[in-house]
Amino acid sequence: MDWKAIIKNVPLDAKPQLLLDQNALESNIVNIEKQANGKNIRLATKSIRSIPVLHKILSSSSTFKGLMCFTASEALFLVKHGFDDVLIGYPTFDKKSLQEIATLNLQGNTITCMVDSKEHIELLTKVQKENGGQFYTCIEMDMSNNWAGFHFGVRRSPLKSPKEVIHLAKFIDSQEGVFIKGLMGYEAQIAGVTDSNSEEKMRSNIIKRLKKKSIPTIAKRREQVHQLFQKNNMQIEFFNGGGTGSLQTTSQEKTVTEVTVGSGFFAPLLFDQYRDFQYEPALFFSLPIVRQPKKHIYTCLGGGYIGSGSIGEEKQPQPVYPSDSTLISLEGVGEVQTPIQTKINLSIGDSVIFRAAKAGEICERFSEILVIDNGKWRQTYPTYRGEGECFL
Asked: Which residues, in sequence order, are CB contacts of 163 under 8 Å at separation 6+?
């Protein structure tokens, strides 16, 4: 990216701005589709959070089908914007939204609730009995590994074995107005854990070995569940797995029908630390310089857009233009100001370009995205925030 020319051509105001490189996005779309191995790709809205970007990806290829959102209210928002086949990625106890979902499903929409316990099903059954309508469900099973007391994975579903999954499926099957539509097994320890950090080689090598050991056990567990459903004559429409970080391996499994992908379209900083794939950075933000406290040190407005998860320096945004610019370790990025140091001569009012550590989350801090095509500003997309929405 010729950031010097872009900054000259793009109308960056005296405030932080979110920037999307449309050429990089389109390249990532093509490369992700190539990795799908004939499977459908469901879009993870948490990692995108912009209606026009979601439409752009879905319209690019028939490989991209359906959305995975993170709350019931977001699902309703997406349906109202013309989307269908929306899977809520996490269990919900939002009764008001569930009432509306049940009604919309009866009217022909497809909004699927994630479940992993009887308590979830009992709530859906209660709402259905009180208000009518119908619910579709997706059972999430645990994909983490436990070796000699060492837990490798994330704390999500309590369903550890195929028998526990089929037991819950039979419970759902016994309810009125509640139906099974799919299964999900998300191997977060493969999809969401980096394994190529040059500054932590020992940790990266350990993670690489653990991933290699984990991949076949995950595939076996999904296959066992699939076989158990067939044995009990229970039909599902989809079996969801994986994420951007495991697309290459998850898409090889016969039982998996779709893989959820989100972060790969924007390719944030953390995605520089994966061994097996590389996408083009597509989402950036600019911060205006408002102070110069010392020679070669410039203080920018805002910038404290820290990625979620366990605390670490890798969750901080990093400057990418000027190319030699770095954060000041004792200050990092701040809510109202971020100092950087560079040998390039800058002026108050100039802009510094950054990348965020994670995708999607950065959109919560901006109302709009300036879309850059071939180095020029072409149009502006609203984010969820720009649409007046905030779901978490």
From this structure: 228
